[in-house]
Amino acid sequence: xxxxxxxxxxxxxxxxxxxxxxxxTDIRLVSRNPRKVNDSDILFSANLLDYQQTSNxxxxxxxxxxxxxxxxxxxxxxxQFPVFMRNTINACIEHGAKLVFxxxxxxxxxxxxxxxxxxxxxxxxxxxxxxxxxxNMLLDxxxxxxxxxxxxRAPEFYGPGETRGITNSLVFENIKKExxxxxxxxxxxxxxxxxxxxASKATALIGNTPDVYxxxxxxxxxDNRLTFKQIINHASSVCGRAIHYKVxxxxxxxxxxxxxxxxxxxxxxxxxxxxxxxFGSDKFKRRFPEFEIMDYKQGIEIILRKNS
Length: 308
Description:
alpha/beta, Rossmann fold, UDP-galactose 4-epimerase, domain 1, seven-stranded parallel sheet, 13 strands
């Protein structure tokens, strides 16, 4: 049995498809209101803030994937993520299940220095601090030898379907609606984005490769990084029309944050848009050289043409 905690988000959905396609038909989807992705999926309703419900959800599992996502809400993140992680760790230990944690990059320093799995945590805001704390919680359990686990870390998402990410929301969604795309701070810095199906496929691969456990893995991204200017220029070619965009400066973002909570929540992420964002995934590429990574330009074409 392979179990996904936090089912029905974009990453979890793609993960369930990949597990069924390549690894197992014995898949359990867990959330408050899970929905089938594959016909053979087993649905299990649980509140992961409750330990007994978490334990019941994990019981009988060989591999557990923690893919829980929360709204970009600092208070919720601070209150709930540490509980999710502690309950999941303890339940995996109780039932002898291996854990695959799908993580993000909030805990890393937000500068132009290339980021690798060896980069030390240096969060700049409360959500980043929580991410550092829960990841360290898991690392402590891994190093103590009380459980087998692996960390899969991904940068900002872009992709099809219900993919959530700042670039998807401010750039691609606006282009599809023929509205003016918004770019944060600068249009000339290199961005590292990960194609959501690639993130899920790589997570399934890592989860089903026994010798890669007890490590952190950066999930694979195209190294031919683009700036926002290049992204939108390519989008113009795909759509066959000139796309004009607005670069939103720091003052405007901070002013808007006084009136819109969702804008306030991205303030701690702003430094990563001020300079190049270089998320390295060389370790994964050396270990899994056969893995096919989506090219940025091809990904942009799929997003825009699928919804045109």
